[in-house]
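Handoff note, outgoing to incoming analyst
You'll be picking up this chain. Sequence as last confirmed:
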Amino acid sequence: MRGLVCRIRALLASDDGAVSVELVLLMLTLAALAGTLYLIVTSDAVRVAIEGLIDRALSVPL
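Most recent structure output, in case you need it:
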């Protein structure tokens, strides 16, 4: 019985899956950030601002 208790304690103290869980959480966070950045960059306000910058750059007299 004592051996079983020691094995259960060893299993509970182990952190074998911790790295996998951390990587999954990191990937989910990065995917959410990428989606947010995509929505911002493809918005009308950003598109208009970029077009304004390009128009100003192309209309500079040489």
